[in-house]
Design a protein that fits this description.
single chain, 310 residues, mainly alpha, 13 helices
């Protein structure tokens, strides 16, 4: 039952064992991660094009993603609001940030580009499918699986060389509290959403374990549960990030923990400039620790819950 979990976790652990001291090599690894994500999402789009009754399937995908997102957001906001009332954390006055995005559209550009990659994959599948046949979709699934293994090695290497010592993570109690609150509330939402999505309890937990890391959750879920559920995971976690870009400026001065925590794993990268810009530099280490912990938790949790399927 756990063999699939070990096969996918092994590349992650192998990558984590690699210490990289060259800045140039780290930059190459970062570019390779981005390229791998784009390639896998393109292949996921091709696989979606191979589904029977594509129109109704895409409608189902959108409905399921909206349902999961709504339940998860309700649980997350309630839990993080509760935490914000109980921790002494406030955003700084004037932010000291350079090169932060000055409008929401600029901040969302990378996220919207990923949607475009999936759409391009669907278009490619629809155009080439009639000419190539089922071989196209079989090859896309096979190639996506092997690129996934490579991606996990690279992600493990990124986490090891992120410059975030374990001691620093564990000593930042606010970042840890925010990460745990977001994770627990998301898993409770996944349990509630599972029967509504016609999923088993463990599959619902897996769907809720992306914590905003949409590129990885889509890949892992899609590999185990098929491209349709991979698409649901992708749009559920992507919508979290898009809402975070809007939510952070509105609430960070009144409910700082909520603003930092709602972005989930993206608080250490994509939503960090927005947190910096509107919350000040004091929020940065807390956001980085929270996002880092959730990034560490997400892949093993998704794979563990999926491994419980009989």
């Amino acid at each position: 039952m756990l063999s699939g979990l070990l096969i996918v976790l092994l590349p992650l652990f192998l990558g984590y064992l690699v210490r990289v001291r060259s800045t140039r090599l780290l930059n190459l690894i970062n570019r390779a991660v981005s390229g791998s994500v784009y390639l896998i999402l393109l292949l996921m789009g091709v696989s979606l094009a191979g589904l029977e009754n594509l129109g109704s399937q895409l409608s189902r995908l959108g409905g399921n993603a909206l349902l999961l997102f709504s339940i998860t957001t309700l649980f997350n906001l309630a839990a993080l609001w509760w935490l914000s009332r109980r921790v002494r954390l406030s955003a700084g006055g004037s932010p000291v940030v350079q090169d932060a995005p000055t409008n929401k559209l600029a901040a969302m550009q990378g996220s919207l580009m990923l949607v475009g990659v999936v759409a391009a994959g669907v278009t490619m599948g629809l155009l080439l499918g009639p000419m190539v046949g089922e071989a196209l979709f079989t090859t896309a699934d096979w190639l996506a699986e092997w690129v996934l293994y490579l991606l996990l090695v690279l992600i493990g290497c990124q986490l090891r060389n992120s410059g975030m010592p374990l001691k620093q993570i564990l000593l930042n109690r606010l970042g840890l509290a925010i990460a745990v609150t977001l994770a627990v509330s998301s898993l409770l939402a996944g349990l509630l959403a599972a029967p509504l999505l016609a999923l088993s309890w463990n599959e619902g937990l897996a769907m809720a374990s992306g914590f905003g890391w949409y590129s990885l959750s889509a890949i892992l879920i899609g590999d185990q549960l098929g491209p349709l559920m991979g698409g649901v995971a992708f749009f559920n976690d992507l919508t979290r990030e898009l809402l975070a870009f809007i939510l952070i400026p509105l609430v960070i001065h009144r409910h700082t923990a909520l603003a930092i925590g709602y972005g989930g794993a993206t608080s250490m990268d994509f939503t960090l400039p927005v947190i910096q810009q509107h919350g000040g530099v004091a929020c940065v280490p807390i956001a980085v620790v929270s996002g880092f912990i959730l990034s560490l938790l997400s892949p093993p949790l998704i794979l563990f819950f999926l491994s419980l399927s009989s």
